[in-house]
Amino acid sequence: MASVSEDEAMRRAIALAARGLGTTSPNPVVGCVILDTSGAVVGEGFHAYAGGPHAEIVALAQAGERARGGTAIVTLEPCDHTGRTGPCTRALINAGIRRVVVGVPDPNPIAGGGAHTLREAGVEVATGTREAEAEAGNIAWLTSMRRGWPYLIWKYAATLDGRSAAVDGTSMWITSEAARMDVHKLRGTVDAVIVGVGTVLADDPRLTARNLRDGTLAIRQPLRVVVDSAGRTPLDAKVRDSAAPTFIATAADVGADSRGRVDLSALLATLHQRGVRAALLEGGPVLAGAFLAAGLVDRVVGYVAPKLLGDGPAALSGAGVSTIAEAIELELTDVTQVGPDLRFTAVPKMKG
User: Fold this and answer.
1) Residue 28, CA distances (Å) to 49, 54, 145, 288, 302 in order
2) Cβ atoms of residues 251 and 229 within 8 Å
3) Helix spans in the chain (H)
4) What is the DSSP letter of 182?
5) Angle, vertex CA 192, rays to CA 175 and CA 58, nearest 5
6) Residue 302 carries which DSSP code?
7) Measured in whole angstroms, how far is the alpha carbon of residue 194 from the centre of its chain?
């Protein structure tokens, strides 16, 4: 078998890690490639689901004795603690791995420190190979672990002139079926979907991840979160059905801000404690504006339909911007056509 470079192997490990996106939380996505002493790939693995074997364990099992004296390429620093599974550091040492190449250090204070343990056992450890790519592939988990609240994606749908509904309130459907199917795919990658009580009262959404063609529910459903300061969510609302778990976040339960509404920072901290590492904000323009004004949005995904309404509610309101100098600047990272619509992906620019 032909040998590959460590750089090529890391690229493959990053691709493997992506296969676990949406099923591993609250754990990270991780990929691993084992090279034998000649540099040939003898084992591959990725973390598929929380509680299941880690990427290193899967790859080592595939490699068997061929791993001895070889190199492990891992997107995230191997864990060094015993949880539902044993420490990957010990498995690598016992397998006789000579060298470990790490993409990103583990920021988790409970599981981190793997590189130190490996070095203490005489294993050579190199860090930083394709670090930016490994970071991007695991951005939600890494961000949430570093700061203590979920990585938040604001998703919206609008016409070309920025309207989220017509004057009479109708909004079904601004975007195409292809775009809506893409949204359901996005829902399948996060741990929670957040809306305001106004959206529940107006639209009575289900907020599940499903196949729009036949209505089949995805195996894993995100937590449905309703930001409902005064507890107005109807008992018969669709978000209260048994299709997925639901959290009605009231000011009394989560904490209130100076206006008596749900404290959004406290809400995100609460969700993090519940194992939410990535959340999708699908609420209306006012809730989106409040999250943006508080600086809590990490990514924006906008589906823009080639339609014009001229009047009607805007896609965003109350973001704390009163003059052009205060505009929330974004950096576009992707523009993709989805059916007849365009999907824009952007991240807020850092101030200063």
Assistant:
1) 9, 10, 10, 27, 26
2) yes
3) 6-17, 55-63, 88-94, 114-120, 131-137, 139-147, 177-187, 197-203, 251-254, 264-273, 285-293
4) H
5) 110
6) E
7) 13
Q: Rounded to the nearest 5°, which phi and psi values hold at 63?
A: -75, -35
What is the arrangement of strands in the sheet containing 31-35, beginning at the earlier edge strand? 41-46, 31-35, 71-76, 99-104, 124-127
In the prediction, which pLDDT does 352 show? Answer: 53
Give the number of other CB atoms < 10 A from CB of residue 146: 9
Known catalytic residue at 56:
yes
Alpha carbon distance 225, 196 (integer Å)? 8
Q: How many residues does the chain have?
A: 352
Tokens of 138: 């695991």
Q: pLDDT value at position 351?
A: 62
* Stretch among 69-73, 82-86, 92-96, 169-173 having the lowest mean pLDDT: 82-86
Distance CA 247, CA 273 (A): 13
Mean pLDDT of 315-331: 90
* Options 6, 44, 56, 77, the catalytic residue: 56
Here the tokens at position 19 are 């296969």
Which residues fall within 8 angstroms of residue 307, CB to CB, at 6 or more apart? 159, 160, 174
Residue 167 bridge partners (DSSP): none
Q: Is 217 helix (H, G, I), strand (E, B) or coil?
A: strand
Q: With a cut of 80, say whether residue 267 has pLDDT above it.
A: yes
Helix (H) or strand (E) holding 304: strand 299-305
